[in-house]
Amino acid sequence: xxxxxxxxxxxxxxxxxxxxxxxxxxxxxxxxxxxxxxxxxxxxxxxxxxxxxxxxxxxxxxxxxxxxxxxxxxxxxxxxxxxxxxxxxxxxxxxxxxxxxxxxxxxxxxxxxxxxxxxxxxxxxxxxxxxxxxxxxxxxxxxxxxxxxxxxxxxxxxxxxxxxxxxxxxxxxxxxxxxxxxxxxxxxxxxxxxxxxxxxxxxxxxxxxxxxxxxxxxxxxxxxxxxxxxxxxxxxxxxxxxxxxxxxxxxxxxxxxxxxxxxxxxxxxxxxxxxxxxxxxxxxxxxxxxxxxxxxxxxxxxxxxxxxxxxxxxxxxxxxxxxxxxxxxxxxxxxxxxxxxxxxxx
Length: 346
Known about the structure:
Number of helices: 15
Protein name: PocR ligand-binding domain-containing protein
InterPro entries: Homeodomain-like_sf, HTH_AraC, HTH_AraC-typ_CS, PocR_dom
Order of helices and strands: HHEHHEEEHHEHHHHHHHHH
Domain HTH araC/xylS-type: 239-337
Number of domains: 2
Distance between the termini: 43 Å
Keywords: DNA-binding, Transcription, Transcription regulation
């Protein structure tokens, strides 16, 4: 796991736990955060006394762990919150944290009962009948009856809220950390250059690579999440090419370079790419860059010249010509229309 996707590195665990405690109080649900391996990175927030007793029992806790594992896998598979029943019929939710198509952890919430008793929810782990288990349950019956009760609509609303909130916070933290890391690298490079009087100076290529990497990171923080940022190739052979395109928005990428990256000839890459996207490479890439340009025009005050540079166009004139080809108007007119319509909606 790349450290960029390590939850312990991404977020301030103490602050995150304070947020988790508050969310637990508001939602009436017990909540815990786990990493991509299923290992908790926080303590349980307001774990119910019934579940505390069950999880401390050696014979029963293994079933709880199986529920957590199965719930997490279903949430990752579907890329959305998964609501299910544990082996005691208690309702739990597994909420995946997924950034840049990378699963980095999950929020496990629940320990509640459902008011809508006729609502069909999967019980993902079952226990065989056991007299000893029945005896233990009877001893905890009062704790079981005291579990919070919510409607299915409330559970679904809470699940969606936690999904969007937690994914947004983690994604923003990753982008912020990436920008800070690149800024620190740039500063260290400047110090190294200043100290080069007594040693070998950094090469031009090294400095250029650092600047390109920083530029790419800054662009990522400006371009909001959209379908244009989520392309997953049906043909796995092409995925390295798409990954490179989206991570190097500032570059003028050539077909030959991506073909080499995928270890195939340029002609074969071109045929497979067209079959995959329905467009020639020479049409798909400019169209994609114009989609990114539209987002920058809508969400930043960058000038047309700056956007042209940010997205790797040869010169502003070519950028404007390309934009007009796809949108039938210039970037400046597009921004003016967007802000006018947005102001009317507000």
